[in-house]
Each structure stands twice: as C-alpha cells, then as structure tokens.
Amino acid sequence: MRKEDKGAIIEQLSATVKEYGNFYLTDIEALNAEKTSALRKECFKRDVKLIVVKNSLLKKALESVEGDFTPLHDSMKGNTAVMFCTVANAPAKLIKDFTKDTKGEGKPQLKAAYVQESFYVGADNLDALVSIKSKKELIGDVIMLLQSPAKNVISALQSSGQTIHGILKTLEEREN
To answer: What is the residue-wise DSSP string for 91-122?
Structure first.
C-alpha cells in the first residue's frame, strides 16, 4: 500500500472516530461469507458502521485524535473490525443478539470498546455495555422522574377538591 493511501485511510478513520464518539473493536475472523453478510445487514439496520481495519493504521488514526487511547492498544492484535455508532449500547446489543445461539462464544467477539469516554477491555464487559443507557433513554427517565411528583400533586389536589365538594353537598342536603 502506498504511503499516500495509508495517509488517506488514517485521515478517514480519524474523522470517523471524531464523528461517532463511540466505537467497539471486535474480532470477526472466523465468520464465513454468509454470516459476514448477515452481520453487515444487521449493522446497517441498527445504524452501526462496520469497518475492517489494519491495526497499525487504526493506532495511527487514534494517535491523531484528541485523547489517550493507549488502553486499547493491547486489543489491537489479529483481525480487527471496528463498529462505530452514536448510540452507546447499539453494537453491544448487536453482538449479543448475533451470538446468542453460541452462548456468547461465537463471532463477532468483543475485544474492547470506547464508550462515553470510558474504556472497556475484554469480552467479559459485553453485558455491562448492553446495560448502558442511551442519551434518549436517560432523558426519558429524567422526564418521567420529573413528572411523577407533579402528577402526585395534581392527583391530590383533584381528589381533595372532590372531597370538599362532597362535604359541602352533604352539609347542604342536611340543611334541607
């Protein structure tokens, strides 16, 4: 590969890392053509960008991006495919769903991940990554928590209003 080509690939990888912010390093080496095609289709459905990269070029791309990515360097051995996404847990759910028939031992297998400015190294972190909530889910939880006290106050006011109305009606009926 020519030096110019390598430079262009490094620039493209750097731009992709900056654009997405979350990425997973996976091993898809043992997948046949049919399963690889199925994985790519599933990635497309879930808005996950899958790229097979040379480890040396990925290291250089990460060096050109702001931040220290050295915890990931030990994971960059052998065949590496990178899953880029904007939703933090989408690739983890994809990997878990794709390997559910093999009880998590099949491919793709998680090598490491950089999610929400944290490093997760090793396949044993897959369940933790699946449980990470997306930004939309967190916003929904906060809104639900904020609405709960307001609903309780409104409910109490409405029920006490009905109680007062009931008492007044009873008193009115007694006088008559």
So the answer is: HHHHHHHHTGGGTT-SSSEEEEEEETTEEEES
**Distances in whole angstroms, Cα of residue 64 to Cα of each of 5, 11, 116:** 16, 8, 19
Write phi, then psi, for 25 (nearest 5 degrees). -95, 125
Which fold does the domain 3-132 belong to in CATH?
A: Alpha-Beta Plaits (3.30.70)
Q: Which of 68, 81, 83 is CA-nearest to residue 23?
A: 83
Distance of alpha carbon 35 from alpha carbon 25, whole angstroms: 18
Q: How does DSSP assign 54-83, residue by residue?
A: -HHHHHHHHHTSSS--GGGGGG--SSEEEE
Q: Which residue in 121, 131, 106, 3 sits closest to 71, CA to CA?
A: 121
For the chain, what are the domain ranges?
3-132, 133-176
What is the rounded distance in angstroms from the CA atom of residue 171 to the CA atom of residue 140? 46
CA quadruple 63, 64, 68, 74: dihedral positive or negative?
negative
pLDDT in tens, 65-103: 888 888 888 888 888 889 999 888 888 888 888 887 766
Computed on alpha carbons and rounded to an integer, the radius of gyration of the chain in Å comes to: 26
Q: Count of H helices and E strands in the chain?
A: 6, 5
Please report the pLDDT score of residue 69 as a whole number.
86
